[in-house]
From TrEMBL:
Keywords: Cell membrane, Membrane, Transmembrane, Transmembrane helix. It comes from Thiogranum longum. GO terms for cellular component: plasma membrane. This is Putative ABC transport system permease protein. It comes from the Bacteria. It is found in: Cell membrane.
Amino acid sequence: MHSRDIGAFAWHALTGYTTRTVLMLMAMAIGVAAVVMLTALGEGARRYVAGQFASLGTNLIIVIPGRAETAGVSPSTLMGETPRDLTLDDAMALTRSYRVRRIAPINVGSADASWKSRSREVTVFGTTNELLALRHWTLAKGRFLPDTDIDIASPVCVIGTKIRDELFGSQPALGQWMRIGDRRFRVIGILGSEGRSIGVDVQETVMIPVASAQQLFNTPSLFRILVEARTREAIEPVKQFILDTLKERHQGEEDVTVITQDAVLATFDRIFTALTYAVGGIAAISLFVAGILIMNVMLVAVSQRTAEIGLLKALGAAPRQIVALFLAEAFLLSSLGALLGLLLGELGSVIVRQMFPTLPAYPPGWATLTALLVALTTGLLFSLLPARRAARLDPVLALSGR
């Protein structure tokens, strides 16, 4: 019996029982589609988080005043001490390493912003010209903060688009003087970027020079210092440089917390990868359920086709050929069901991406390949029992329908 004959026999066996075949196809297809869609959602969540961190900047290191304690209350807290301030001089000291590309000191506060009769409360970012490139932001109009010494308090500002719309309406904002707190600032730029920074909508912020922010809020301290390393490999050396430099400047006290972007991203990556594996494994259970359905249906098929099997054996078909016929039928059924499930899963992923454009729900290649292999394997494995049972039938008894 040739391979072409085995394939034709399997195809006619499937098309001869349309309802049974469709039910088994749908069972296998649903299992594969579930694996593809759920892993696509998990991978999409992982990529979304990675994209959000990438928008924060490349090779980013964040310096925070105060040391993170792992054991509850620190001795300095019991003594009523507060973390040492980060200053502009500290920020400038961090530029002395050739591995540091740029820095951006940040001061954050809220103040009332007004123009003519319109006013609202805004979040004010005190920073420098380097923040635009460090955070990969873009401008809609105008220019960003001037590239001057960080201790120069220039009366200029860059505003988000929502601030522009709410305060200036249809009037041009560039070149206008607006009041922030008790000071006046001239609008020189409008941010075009969207998203959130430190939990604040970028479109609802006002950027001013960091020295101006220190005067506005009457504080010499900084909220954060953002540092960008030149390469990914330089992140750890730069982190150690920051700790050593600030420890030396703060009388030997290691009183800052340094967070690397890679460390945070790696944590989220591990979480979402584990989640993807988990939901993929849960969905894969439906493939085993489909395999059991194939086994049960094929066991019924053996009893329904007893006479047919007996005729084949009477014509000289060997037991291994009978097994091959049933395995070919299961392979064909599993292949068609897996391909149908793959199409359904891809279609579902497209629908998810259309409904949630920010979620890159693309199924990972390993999940698609694994779903196909598991579908084929379960189909073949669970068809072995019916195939062996058919091969052991006595041809005389089978021809008589017993």
